[in-house]
């Protein structure tokens, strides 16, 4: 999938003027705070994803009420028009050639993988960051699995509302107890489906990740990622067993929303033992493996976007990163560095200043 152009209205500090992208690598350069990351974030939203900065829509909107992002992509020989609009009180609305589609359809139509400094939380952050990573992986690998995630989220909301009502003394009687039992069964069924999807997607990802680790060097040998649900029995049995505790606390205490991914090296937990450089390298390899999984599932090369791609990298590490970039039809790399640092990198250069983006055209080798 190749991204041809994008334009936005009322989105952060970005100018409403359209931005065109060249084939292959696009360097998005500019001083800090000028809008480079905002541009990449807009691309992420257009491709059916959430903000990789975990920003709420109201935080991305100029007035907190609305924004629109439109773009054109090329798949094979066909050009498609995509858009996403957010309106307070109504949420996001995706369109393909002005006909409404779901966010899963947008993700399928415009496959993309993003890497940002925030993604280091995949290794060093709380469990919810790793769950977010694996669910994004599931959607990229098998978009239809999104139905299981949505069904589980609904069951969790409904069950938590009932448990909270019990805790506050607002729920009594056999009818409410029967409703809670029904939502417990639904939570268990959809939860087991979500876990199956996560484990299956991780198995595919692990195969790609292992290959990248082998090429990264012997210091990364033995690094792995395992799925942990912390339960010795099935989810239905666990929920029935801990129901009195859940009624006292007013929320569901078991299920995919509490699972975790455990990083290890040689059988020992990796967290707290990996250097900052190793964390950066492992997270980069994790996202490159995700890109491979999405590519194989989509049948075409996804867009690959990296924010602050050269931050903290030595010359040698930078060369290794560039050499490992996937063969995508569109690669977006944001940087605050002078583009002269990247002599030898064939790319189109886009300069961002005060939310306005201008193109310098193609630059090859010593031409930058």
Structure commentary:
The protein has 368 residues and is of the alpha/beta class. The protein has 2 domains: 1-111 and 300-368, Rossmann fold (3-Layer(aba) Sandwich); 122-299, Up-down Bundle (Glutathione S-transferase Yfyf (Class Pi), Chain A, domain 2). Helices cover 41% and strands 24% of the residues. The chain contains 11 helices and 15 strands. Strands 2-1-4-5-6-7 form a 6-stranded antiparallel sheet. Strand 5 (78-87) and strand 6 (91-96) form a beta hairpin. Helix 5 crosses helix 7 (174-216), helix 7 crosses helix 8 (235-241) and helix 7 (174-216) packs across helix 10 (276-298). The longest helix has 43 residues, at 174-216. The chain is globular. The two termini are 26 Å apart. The model is unreliable at 364-368 (pLDDT under 50).
List keywords for this structure.
368 residues, 24% strand, disordered C terminus, Glutathione S-transferase Yfyf (Class Pi), Chain A, domain 2, 6-stranded mixed β-sheet, globular, Rossmann fold, 11 helices, 15 strands, alpha/beta, single chain, 6-stranded antiparallel β-sheet, 41% helix
Number of domains: 2
Q: How would you describe the shape?
A: globular
CATH class of the largest domain: Alpha Beta
Mean pLDDT: 92
Estimated share of beta-strand residues = 15-25%
Q: What layout of secondary structure does this protein have?
A:
Layout (H helix, E strand, L loop, with lengths): L1 E8 L9 E2 L3 E6 L6 H11 L10 H4 L5 E10 L2 E10 L3 E6 L2 E3 L1 H7 L2 E4 L5 H4 L2 H15 L4 H22 L6 H43 L6 E6 L6 H7 L1 H7 L10 E6 L2 E2 L6 H23 L4 E4 L8 H9 L6 E6 L11 E7 L2 E8 L5
Parallel strand pairs: 3-13, 3-14, 8-12, 12-13
Antiparallel strand pairs: 1-2, 1-4, 4-5, 5-6, 6-7, 9-10, 10-11, 14-15
Helix pairs in contact: 5-7, 6-7, 6-9, 7-8, 7-10
């Amino acid at each position: 999938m190749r991204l041809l152009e994008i334009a936005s209205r009322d989105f952060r500090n970005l100018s409403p003027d359209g931005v065109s992208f060249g084939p292959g690598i696009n360097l998005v350069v500019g001083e800090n705070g000028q809008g480079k990351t905002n541009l990449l974030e807009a691309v992420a939203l257009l491709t059916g994803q959430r903000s990789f900065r975990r920003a709420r829509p109201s935080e991305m909107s100029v007035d907190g009420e609305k924004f629109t992002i439109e773009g054109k992509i090329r798949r094979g020989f066909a050009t498609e028009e995509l858009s996403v609009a957010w309106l307070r009180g109504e949420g996001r609305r995706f369109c393909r050639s002005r006909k409404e589609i779901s966010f899963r359809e947008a993700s399928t139509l415009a496959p993309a993988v993003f890497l940002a400094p925030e993604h280091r939380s995949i290794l060093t952050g709380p469990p919810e960051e790793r769950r977010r990573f694996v669910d994004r992986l599931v959607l990229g690998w098998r978009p239809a699995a999104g139905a299981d995630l949505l069904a589980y989220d609904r069951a969790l909301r409904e069950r938590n509302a009932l448990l909270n009502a019990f805790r506050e003394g607002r729920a009594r009687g056999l009818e409410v107890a029967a409703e809670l039992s029904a939502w417990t069964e639904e939570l268990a069924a959809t939860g087991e489906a979500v876990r199956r999807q996560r484990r299956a997607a991780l198995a595919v990802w692990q195969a790609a990740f292992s290959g990248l680790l082998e090429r990264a060097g012997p210091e990364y040998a033995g690094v792995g990622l395992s799925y942990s649900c912390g339960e010795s029995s099935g989810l239905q049995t666990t929920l029935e067993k801990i129901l009195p505790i859940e009624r006292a606390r007013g929320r569901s205490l078991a299920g995919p929303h509490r699972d975790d991914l455990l990083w290890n090296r040689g059988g020992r937990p990796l967290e707290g033992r990996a250097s900052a450089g190793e964390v950066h390298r492992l997270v980069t390899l994790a996202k490159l493996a995700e890109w491979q999984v999405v590519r194989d599932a989509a049948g075409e090369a996804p867009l690959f976007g990296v924010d602050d791609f050269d931050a903290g990298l030595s010359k040698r590490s930078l060369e290794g990163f560039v050499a490992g970039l996937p063969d995508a039809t569109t690669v977006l790399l944001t940087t605050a560095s002078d583009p002269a640092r990247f002599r030898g990198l064939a790319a189109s250069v886009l300069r961002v200043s005060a939310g306005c983006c201008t193109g310098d055209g193609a630059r090859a080798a010593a031409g930058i």
